[in-house]
Amino acid sequence: MTYFRHKKGVFKHQKGFARRRVAFVMLLVSALLITAIVASTALRASPPTSAAVTPLNVPTLIDSRTQNGPIVIDIKEGEHAFYPGVKSKTSGYNGGYLGPTIKMYKGESTDISFTNHLDEPTNIHGHGLHVVGKIDGGPQNKILPGETWNVTIPVSQQASTNWYHPHLKGSTAKQVHSGLAGFYLIEDGHSLSLGLPNTYGIDDIPLVIQDRNFVDGKMTPYPAGNMPEDLREDTLVVNGTINPYTMVPKSFVRLRLLNGSNARSYEFYLEGEQPFYKIATEGGLLPSPVEITTLKMAPGERNDIVVDMSVIENQKVLARFLPMSYNGFNAALIPFSESQPVLELRADGSLEALASELPTQLNTITPYLEKDVEVERVFELDDMSINGQQMNMKVINHESKLGQLEKWTIDSGRHPFHMHGTSFLILSMNGNPPAPEDQGWKDTIYPNGTAEILLKFDYEAPEQWPYMYHCHILEHEDMGMMGQFTVK
Ligand SMILES: [Cu+2]
């Protein structure tokens, strides 16, 4: 088995069958496309309504302000019951699957001590953090079995929803799939003064969305041997629970959505296409809440949304499984899955309604101006490489200057693009200005075409500890769809 990577719309096939297979697929496309559209339409009309029976698993909260000494995180193999009573072999941080949510504050430092109890190297990347290369946790930064990585994170960025996960070249996909992922939440004085829902697990709920396969209730382990082109599985898993519910106050409820899947993109919506509010992108709060009815998210992206639970008893959050590209040709090549439940919110009048109003002003974002751009770079993602090059640990692909405004044109095709060390603002998406809900700070983007972004780097990343840019389909990243750069 080999992987054929010379065309967009990559698929797996046997050597020697390329031409015949392509012709066969081309013949199938129109029929499948029609089927897919019909299926999609039908699914939109009838979302899943099966009652949720499992209480939502909410990761343990570790608040950095309550710690005496470093936060201790043990990285280890374990077990986790996705379905009640059926245990799967998994990995986790301080537990069987996923890890604690670590809350940090702007202007303060957080000490964390990560010990690797696995029988293979791992590392910890702070996805979304604005920190120097050495703390960022790129592939150079290995934690060998038995070793401890002590890190002090100086938090200088605004309130935002970020996450930590392994980032070793070649084993990121497998390790994240096994359960290694957790939230870093950052708050600041402003975010805490707004009156947004922020009671953890009650009206401020982190949700990591993943897809997994199960046989007899047990999670299928990551495929051994040949890595799949990209791993898309059939069952939606939310914080390690399937079809969960949670009790919430009769008020506004904040959901911090993280697409922590290896390769799948989703479109989130409420049952009946009820409106909800998007209040934050990856790097911080939006200027104002933006009312939307659907929200697409690629791997690595985070968005905070607010659902009004003041007048309804029950609200289901659902997700459509998106094809490889949001639109077009590839749609027919990937089996369409039905919409699946993310979370059932059940209003409980006995819980104190903490956030009865949603502020109309959330944040001030001073836009970067295109006229101030000093350097332009282009990133073409194709053929499992970026600008025709695959990741080479010994090659620095470019050098950025501290504080210099850069414009990056990202011709990403079907690949979500992420860079380390900073947040960017979108200048254009496929030739259009960003929609209001996309006019926030981001670090991961899936334009499904071409985007222009503006960004600058405020922290150093020398040759020993460079920053990465890469496709956030983890299999693609592991196969080399990644580059590295310094900031000085
Ligand atoms: Cu990719």
From TrEMBL:
Domain Plastocyanin-like: 76-189, 374-488
Coiled coil (UniProt feature): none
Superkingdom of this protein's organism: Bacteria
Keyword line: Metal-binding, Oxidoreductase
Gene3D superfamilies: Cupredoxins - blue copper proteins (2.60.40.420)
Protein name, per record: Multicopper oxidase domain-containing protein
